[in-house]
Write a structure and sequence with these properties.
By secondary structure, this protein is of the alpha/beta class. About 40% of the residues lie in helices and about 25% in strands. It contains 7 helices and 10 strands. The strands form 2 sheets. The chain has an 8-stranded mixed beta sheet with strand order 1-2-4-3-7-8-9-10, with helices on both faces. The protein has a two-stranded antiparallel sheet with strand order 5-6. Helix 3 crosses helix 4. It starts with a helix and ends with a helix.
Length: about 240
């Protein structure tokens, strides 16, 4: 009987240990699951720059790391937030103005709390792809002073998503988009750039010859290099 109890306890502890951590924020009683990875031989107790990464809609945080972020050599803490909305077999980020209002603030608060929880050098950088790229654009307008720099990849943003709340642009934005993207058209990316510029955000927009999912094949090295330069400046 005692052996059975020990086995059950071991299973419970293993399940708890392997479960992704969560961060809860005051706004709207929202919680985010997240995954932490370390690059460049860094360890969990090191004082490091932080990169917060937002996956595309329908994806998962763990899978996004393998897709986009596994070539980093600069020592950094990479925190992959999981989208709060269910979407197909994965998760997603907001796409309606009401959802943006609720979850946009929650993302900013979660990043602030994560930067306090872990020994973090400077302000976190933010990277988002597709639906996560749209959230990254939104963060740059609404909560830009939370970040050191923001990297939207294949995202979009319109004025209607912003609502009437006050904005606080801060971080410079370096965006990437494929000219033949059929999931999020490059026109959506250019519209986002105009929205940001109209709100006083400094933004650089890099186009490449390719589609939506090919961006982390054709442009992975260039995106990695751009983000690493920012992370190096924070060390």
């Amino acid at each position: 009987m005692k052996s059975l109890i020990l086995v059950i306890l071991a299973i419970i502890l293993a399940t708890w240990w392997l479960k992704d951590p969560t961060i809860s924020v005051p706004s709207g009683d929202v919680s985010f699951s997240y995954v932490v990875k370390y690059s460049g031989g860094a360890g969990k107790n090191d004082y490091l720059p932080m990169l917060v990464a937002l996956h595309g809609n329908g994806d998962k945080a763990k899978n996004f790391y393998k897709t986009a972020l596994d070539e980093f050599s600069t020592p950094a803490r990479i925190v992959l937030l999981q989208g709060p909305l269910s979407h197909g077999s994965g998760n997603a980020w907001p796409w309606t103005p009401d959802d943006f209002s609720q979850y946009g603030k929650a993302v900013s608060e979660a990043v602030d709390l994560l930067a306090l929880k872990y020994p973090t050098a400077g302000k976190p950088a933010l990277l988002g792809f597709s639906g996560g790229g749209t959230m990254a654009y939104y963060q740059s307008v609404k909560y830009g002073d939370t970040y050191s720099r923001i990297f939207p990849v294949s995202g979009q943003l319109s004025d209607t998503a912003l609502g009437d709340d006050l904005s606080s642009p801060g971080a410079d934005v370096l965006a990437f988009h494929g000219t033949s993207d059929r999931v999020v058209s490059i026109g959506g990316g250019k519209m986002a750039v105009k929205v940001l510029q109209d709100k006083g955000v400094r933004v650089t927009f890099t186009e490449f010859d390719g589609g939506h999912h090919g961006i982390f094949t054709n442009m992975k090295s260039e995106i990695t290099k751009a983000v690493e330069q920012q992370l190096e400046s924070l060390r």
